[in-house]
Amino acid sequence: MNGAMKTQEISKSIMSDASRRIEKLREGKYIAGDFGLEIVKPPWFDEAKFTRGQKLSKDNLVCVFLADLLFLLTVFSSPRILRTLILTGKSSCPFTALNRYVATIRAVVSWHNGDIWNPEDLAHKFLRHVMTSHKSLYTIANFQRKEEVDRIEVEENPMVQITGMYKKIRASNEEQSRSTKCDGNAKNTNHITPKMKIQPDFDQAKERPRTSSNVQASIKKHNFSLSNDEFTPSKDTARKRSQQDHNPNFSSNYNQVPSSRNSDSKMSESVRSDKSPPKVDESIPNHNIPYVSQWDLLTVQYAFIASIVAHPEAFGAWNLPDEDVDGFIYYWKVLGFFLGIREEFNLCSGDLEQTRALILAFEQEVILPAFEEVDHNFEHMSLALMGGINMMVPLVNYPSALMYLLTALGADTATIYKSLTLREKAIYHFLNCVTYSCRVRLIRNMFSSLLEICLDLIEGHGPWWWPRILAPKNTISPRVP
């Protein structure tokens, strides 16, 4: 069931509330993530709901894996998140991408299966490792290498050949726009809304460096609503931050969104071990919107929850009880809290219907428009990801994965489908067959077991009975935090 059909099932009032909430969520662009937390149960913790969410994830492992993999492309569509990933240098070629995302898969699976509250458990160690990594990335991207990340471009790699698939998305938009103009009474389908192009073509993008002035001028000219801009550090901002760090009584005008936390969330402040990074001063011109902001973190959270909450059948999770999905939402509310997302920016702070409406609205207002502006950096990182995963799970490639994802989100992908090769179309339909066959629990469990075997094989310790001829040629070293 695609996004358009799901939206029709939700009342207009709830969808309207979701759209208004997204406008408040956008304010999270100006607030850094909260990285000073101890992993202890907050006062509002509900053991039963958390356990239900864990169980749903465990029982639908292959569905969650497929969804998390494809929804990583939505994370790549955010320019600011993409720059931080490029900065790390750990995702730009298939082999490094494989290392990075197998470690991510291992971490998420450990949270599904383990005890995050036990310091000796692998789940706790992985959660602590991810929290530390986010805090380190925040410091590097915003203070140590700020000017570099503002203008960073992915380096060419012979293992990654740009295909121009991102241009086909634009072609699909332009064709849909012409079709709509020719038929004045045409039905307003749920496609990626056509917009004027801001990004240059691939060849031009490689030659022309990005600057704050030309990007912001384009944004102003075209009334572009997403944060695709770049900013230079402000000396006044740095001075005020330094004063605040060294003087606890220093009073500044750092921007803080009016808090809507309930009494439970206020109580949870007691588990914070140190102060949050400084906020942005709105009064200073060209203020520094932080990397690894609340907006960035909730965008990543969206990628982990959208499939189960809003598009379960499209990713093989059939006939999920509402109570279990509600537990899944709560499960990711807790994980999001520890990964740095404040209550007012946590996508999982509402009930099932509210969260589903919020996700669908987020897709229509943020995710799909972002795909209109993707460039060669997006495509390079996507190709590296899919190339790496293909070493572990064959029959997955970038064009087919992108086609499947956009179709699940309700986008009009007719033009993109026509541009696929015969092999890419076959893989796309194979993915449809896999997710449909997961209606049968036995098949779903079989795929989940095969996935765990693939993870073991790529780390060089598969089962003894597995035929060597079917083992991957390249293996990686397991990462244990």
UniProtKB/TrEMBL annotation:
Q: Where is the composition biased (Polar residues)?
A: 245-262
Q: Where are the transmembrane segments?
A: 61-82
Compositionally biased residues, Basic and acidic residues: 171-181, 198-210, 232-244, 263-284
Region (Disordered) residue ranges read 168-285
For this UniProt record, the keywords arranged alphabetically read as follows: Membrane, Transmembrane, Transmembrane helix
Q: What's the protein called, per UniProt?
A: Uncharacterized protein LOC108671550
